[in-house]
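<amino_acid_chain>
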Amino acid sequence: MDVLIHIFVGLHIVGIAALLGGFLTQMKAMGQDAARFTPAMLHGALTMLVTGAVLVGLNQAQDYSVDNVKIGVKLALLVVILGLVYVKRDDEKVEKPLFGLVGLLTVANIFIAVLWT
């Protein structure tokens, strides 16, 4: 079961890489008021949601301790990110503050995962 958990952790990291990578590739366009949410950002956020839910289930099935408050905060941030990216995915350009908020929430989600113990 530990191998399966590690596989899903890897997939979760791939999801965050797609979301953050999509954001970083659009930063130059954000400076020119032409940033948009890429399909990679949407798919990365969806991957994070699915793999995160699976990881919580697998860890609880193994009787590993799960910090439900931490998971709840991370889920809330991800739902906001996913909602913004999904609603604005077809727009030709996204406003700077909204685009920046997605990047900020993504980085906050990473730091919560790493630093909250």
The longest helix spans residues 2-25. Residues 14 and 44 are 7 Å apart (CA to CA).
